[in-house]
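EI: anyone free to look at a 306-residue chain?
SC: sure, send it
EI:
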Amino acid sequence: MKLRIFTEPQQGADYETLLTVAKAAEDLEFDAFFRSDHYLAMGGSDGLPGPTDAWITLAGLARETRRIRLGTLVTAATFRLPGPLAIQVAQVDRMSGGRVEFGLGTGWFAEEHAAYGIPFPSDKFARFEEQLAIVTGLWATKPGDTFSFDGKHYQLTDSPALPKPVQDPVPVLIGGHGATRTPRLAAQYANEFNMPFASLEDSARQFERVRAAAESYGRRADDLVYSNALVACVGSNDAEVARRAAAIGREVDELKTNGLAGTPDEVVDKIGRYREIGAGRVYLQILDLDDLAHLELIADKVKSQL
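SC: here you go
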């Protein structure tokens, strides 16, 4: 079981804070540092000092880290055209020496689109599907060949399909709760399927849908990595758990039900139950980015037991 650090910078974090967390995660030997792709804070946060762009952030981290893998959970397809997005991700992969993982989703937060003048189409899923075909198709095109695509939403003509990433292929992550289309696209394009913020029961059902879709597509079910994203709130004792829950504006009982909260032994036990249904990675949503002692505790008392 691999543990990855997952941050939500739109809630309030500048690049220096993200760099500090990424370097701490690397030093503590977590498997990866991931971030969300949002431009507007949610809930009661003021979002200060303001949003950071996911791929600009990852480009900076690519040059300032050495080992840790880097990615998005997940890039919003509505934010970017697929051709430039393929260039951006390939470039960051080269800048990192081949450490990028590419999570892509439809985009969903209408208010942030309105706030920053980004079109919010009604047919998001169809555009998302075409983006997956284009980005992966550009990367797969052999040097010297060209790539063309004639879709409903996007058309490319004789693209040189450059630059190429270091990795061949760049790992693609698709996630979500959708019962039909999401498993189908994961089976067709993904190296990893992620179930975000879901119970054991819902995760098990969705993993089985993806496994069945993979086999229908002619792949082995275990060709994909299965993962979960869950909020983390770990303390060495009940008082520390309560303090960390209060710091992120959450209740301990709710976090224990819906996330990974409690003492290290409690959290190890719950992670074990996700492993039993097939999860090979857990993305720990860390909401208090100033609390590096939280990462140290998880590395020392949770990760060490997995």
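EI: The chain has a mean pLDDT of 97.
SC: 👍
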